[in-house]
Write a structure and sequence with these properties.
Blueprint (H helix, E strand, L loop, with lengths): L14 H17 L3 E6 L5 H5 L5 E7 L2 H10 L6 E5 L12 E7 L8 H11 E12 L16 H9 L2 E11 L1 H18 L12 H19 L1 H4 L10 E4 L8 E9 L7
Parallel strand pairs: 1-2, 1-4, 2-3, 4-5
Antiparallel strand pairs: 5-8, 6-7, 6-8
Length: 266
Amino acid sequence: MKLTGERPMQGATPDSLLAFHDAGYREVLARLGPGITIDVGCGIGDETRRLAASDRLVIGADYSAETVRAAAAEHVEVDGLRFCAFDGSALAVRDRSVDFVVSSHIIEHFTNPVTHVADLARTLRTDGTAFVITPNAPADFENPFHVYLFERAQLVSLLSLFFDEVTCLGLEGDDALHTDFASRRAGGERLLRLDVFRLRQRMPRPAYVWTYEHVLPLAYRMLGRGRTGIGSGLSERNFFATEHVDERTPGLFAIARRPRVKASRG
């Protein structure tokens, strides 16, 4: 798979961002039970694979048919693991047919995230649970792929439209993680200062995304591994879940239970 700036990839994505994804799935796995689970935005499926168990059917869903085919080939030997090309705001499953649904680093990509959350709720059984993982808006880096960012209260408010019980924790990092984030943010800000006329904010968004996709790999090569956070050794152990969330907390981990019946299409 090519580096786009959004799909986490070993050796191409900073270790701290890989750890961010790993930590989110660790928290999901700790709360997951038997039944049917859909992992929305599964990518190549490395994290989805972690959710597989003998008492669980896990379906990795991604909008890219090419990515789904690659994921299926990569994990073909794992029992109870399937991959399908689904739209994250129109999952092709029956109402009230899923026990758990995972939305990891997906909701921030929707121009209208309400449609995504509504469909998560629609798919779940009355006792089902949705897990939503997303960057914490005040701590997020500038990223053209992130079109709708959330603070904790905003995420809880949206989920509460479709679920009767919503808890939102922080995915917090230790000192080493925050040092890495601060270093990479400083490096990114130095690169952005080269755009003295702020052309990225004037060009059409598709052009900005295209530029980001093509310039990012070049920037990583120019900066070298030591300044991009690749090879830093940071892992999910540098993250922990906490009820305390402030502007430095990297991520949000929401648990939404008891979907409301009004979320159903029929």
